[in-house]
Amino acid sequence: MKRIGKVEPYLWLAPAFFLFVVFTFYPFVQTIYKSLFVVDALGNIRSFAGFQNYTHILADPKFIKSILNTLYFVVLTVPTSKILGMILALLCNKRRKLSPIYEASFAVPMAMASSVTAMIFQLLYVPSLGLINGVTGLKIQWLNDPKIAMISIAIIQVWLSTGYAFIYLLSAVRSVPADILESACLDGATPFRQVISIYLPLTSPTMFYLVCTDVAYSMMMMSLINVLTQGGPFDSTITIMQYVYKQFAAAGNYTNANPAAIIAFCMTIIVTLLVFRWEKKGVFYQ
Amino acid sequence: MKEKAARRVLMQAICLALGLVILFPILYAISVSFMEQKDVLSKTPHLFPTVITLENYVTAFTHTAIWRYMWNSFVVALVCSISRIVIGTMGAFSFAFFDFKGKRLLFALTMATIMIPADVLIVQNYLTISHLGLINTYVGICSIFLVSGTNVFLLRQHFLSFSLSLKEASYLDGCRNLRFFWYILLPNSVPILVTVFLSSFVSIWNQYVWPMLVTNQNEMRTVQVGITMLKDRESSVFGPVMAGVVIALVPTVLIFLIFQRKIVSGMMSGAVKE
Questions:
Q1: Neighbours of A55 (CB within 10 A)
Q2: How many folded domains does chain A comprise?
Q3: From B15, B125, B143, residue closest to A92, measured CB to CB
Q4: Which of A12, A56, A199, B181 has the fewest CB atoms below 10 angstroms from its CB?
């Protein structure tokens, strides 16, 4: 009986850790390990290559392009959706009669799948007869112009992620203490001034959390691209994960896919660390 | 601080208008799904159908495997959500109520699974699944979604707020761990379990990359993957595709609208401490 007592906590954890090991830790270690080897089309190790695999893909202009595109995508989407989310949260700050209706409508995109959303925007983006060009009279090749395509994809991502930011920021904005706001009002602070000196600092921990999670998510972006452009036109929308996917799923090239995935992981860590530096300086904890 | 009446009306009007703008893509998709083909891409763009037709839905249901896709998605989302609850509560129970060697390390490892992006792992996970011969099976699609470190963490936080004295009291009454878990802990955690279930269901229903990777037979596609295949086959025929899109988005959007409060509060209690 005593013995069972000692193993019992491990038994409760066993199913979770079985899955963690098989589908998280094992593949993580394997991917790092295999990234140093030449690997055949079935994923078996052939010969040791060391860091040559890394230098090889880093010399591939397509891969460099995919790194730059991914960073461009992060820069386009992460700040935009946070700023829009903040504006919406400030507009909704006061509880009003119709609050539940418009708050829900701002948040709904959270429940939308990226592939379904991609299909809708594809229709809106049709160049000749699509709704956006049709109504505005523009002649933009939304998904076919190499200069515009990534922006078009970013717009979809912003649409998808603003609701998420909004929901978090709304609760942060509403938890700003009323006495601080009242004394600011008495001091004659303009609404703009209140936003800059009260709301932004006091919601910065939430903002920090949102930026961290969204950076990690956006660095791995591929679903929208896979549905809409497959990385084209002229590799203008290829992201790192799309590159990885093309290498191993389309070409069976695991020798390139593994180091590329590891580079994606390292870049995510680096960018996240940069965000953490901002936390030291700019995030205000009460 | 009170808002003036005029200002209050104005602000609500602005917010409602913004809400419409944000909902526009969804509303447009619904509208197109009821349009005749000639209205969809016409010289003068149509916001609303001139004639309401169910043709597109009929096409979607009869000419595509959309029912099958929906069923696949439903099975996968249901199995994974239940598994996440069962495995998650068990793990969280251990972390919250036991003291044992290596607890801190195991907990740190659980947190580490949250930090490692699943996308980085798909290369090797794909190999694992294909070596096991699980391509085109429900097991293969479900495999990587069966447990979530985030859920373990969330449930642990919740269980920690459950007073330890209650456990000790039930112990004195001769209530063993398993009985405590089943008869006291779980029934008292129903709200959080519902939250975990709903948010898991929505997020797994909406998965795209992994289900696409591990299926190549049409009848094993989930709805998110299947929907993108409709487009390839019928290139510019958007009506039936939008009907499919609407069918695919209805379950999760409905769940979200009905249980918004529950889902949102669950997400937040796991994330930000404020």
A1: 11
A2: 1
A3: B15
A4: A56
CA pair distance B148, B118, nearest whole angstrom: 11
How confident is the model over A213-246, as pLDDT tens digits? 899 889 999 999 998 888 878 888 999 999 999 9
On whether both B138 and B185 belong to a single domain, the answer is yes
Put simply, the answer to whether B116 touches A265 (Cβ < 8 Å) is yes
Q: For chain B, give the number of residues.
A: 274
Domain end residue (candidates: B58, B86, B103): B58
Complex ipTM over 0.90: no
Using the beta-carbon criterion (under 8 Å), do B146 and A19 form an inter-chain contact?
A: yes
What are the pLDDT digits (tens) for B218-239?
A: 889 999 998 888 766 446 678 8
Restricting to A residues 113-152, those with a Cβ less than 8 Å away from any Cβ of B are 113-124, 126, 128-131, 134-135
pLDDT in tens, B146-172: 999 989 998 998 888 776 667 676 666
Task: Please check whether residue A182 lies inside any domain of the structure.
Answer: yes
The domain containing residue B157 runs over which residues? 64-271
Residues B115 and B40 in one domain: no
Chain A residues touching residue B208 (CB < 8 angstroms)? 113-115, 223, 226-227
To the nearest whole angstrom, how far is the Cα of A92 from the nearest Cα of chain B?
8
Q: Tally the domains of chain B.
A: 2
The predicted model gives B119-133 an average pLDDT of 92
Q: Taking CA A178 as the corner, what is the angle to CA A186 and CA B261, rounded to the nearest 5 degrees?
A: 150
The answer for A 45-74 residues in CB contact with B (under 8 A) is: none
Strands (E), chain A: 37-39, 45-48
CATH number at residue A128: 1.10.3720.10
| Contact state of B88 with A88 under an 8 Å Cβ cutoff | no
